Amino acid sequence: MDLPIDIVLVRHGESEGNVAVKLSKKNDHSLYTDEFARKSSRNWKLTVNGENQAAMAGNWLKDNDLYKFDGYYVSSYDRAKQTAALLQLPDASWRKPKNLIRERDRGLADVVSYERLRTEFGYVLEGLHKEAYLFRFPNGESLADVELRIREFIRTIQREVPKGKVIVVCHGEVMWVFRVLLEGLSLDEFSVLDKSRHPNDRIHNCQILHYTRETGDGVITPSYNRFHSICPTDLSLSEPGWRSISKVRFSNEEMLNLVSA
């Protein structure tokens, strides 16, 4: 089965959870009230800023002729569903929200302030620092676990929208898994990007990643050959243009050099 020719990934806008986490990392844990802690993270709503970000992302898509799709997919979480609707894509027909593209399950460490994360779940921070892709949250998921869901989702869109154009509204860590799969990132390459603090290496709220199998001169390749990263809320955080995706091969000697590097 053929992959969709184009797949456009959109991260949701700023949510109430995003605000709580950012403040908590600055030692302001005031938003982690008992009421907030009892609320499932899947029910986090967009902030007013997040709603505005979604509108900006929608405007960018429409201004750049990316508003007609053969498949419209959205995560089952509230913040993603809100974002999808607020993109205001004309004649959009969103399919039933997909659990396959829901955010990573953080298990016992979900809706936990950064202070509690340091004091009660210190091993989580250590595990994430040591092996961010493979570390599994207690009673939750690793990104490698999420990868299994995303592989199944990709098989789904192969069946439902072969050779078409697809938009997927989902989450930051889910988009990182898409990057690993669609760009063929190694664990080492992912680790470098994960540890980077350069703002252009992050996936910001309402960031758009556009992957295509079209080479630019009308040739369609079997796999995605280039992608474009856009941050509609701050274009300085966008890629200046398309970036090629190369599938690197190694000789025996080069493989040994990778290990000894």
Outline the fold blueprint.
Blueprint: E1 6-11, H1 16-25, H2 34-38, H3 48-63, E2 71-74, H4 78-86, H5 114-120, H6 122-130, H7 143-160, E3 165-170, H8 172-183, H9 187-195, E4 208-212, E5 226-230, E6 243-244, H10 252-260
Parallel strand pairs: 1-3, 2-3
Antiparallel strand pairs: 1-4, 4-5, 5-6
Helix pairs in contact: 3-4, 5-6, 7-8
Describe this structure in words.
The chain has 261 residues and is of the alpha/beta class. Helices cover 40% and strands 11% of the residues. The protein has a 6-stranded mixed β-sheet with strand order 2-3-1-4-5-6.
Give me some keywords for this one:
261 residues, alpha/beta, six-stranded mixed sheet
Give the helix/strand class.
alpha/beta
Sheet with the most strands: spatial strand order: 2-3-1-4-5-6
Low-confidence stretches: none
Distance between the termini: 38 Å
Largest sheet: 6 strands, mixed
Summed up, the helix count is: 10
What is the radius of gyration computed over CA atoms, rounded to a whole number of angstroms?
19 Å
User: What portion of residues belong to β-strands?
Assistant: 5-15%
Compute the number of strand runs: 6
Shape category: globular
Considering DSSP H and I runs of 4 or more, what fraction of the residues is helical?
Answer: 25-40%
Helices and strands, in order, run as EHHHEHHHHEHHEEEH
Mean pLDDT metric: 95
Brief account:
The protein has 261 residues and is an alpha/beta fold. Helix content is 40%, strand content 11%.
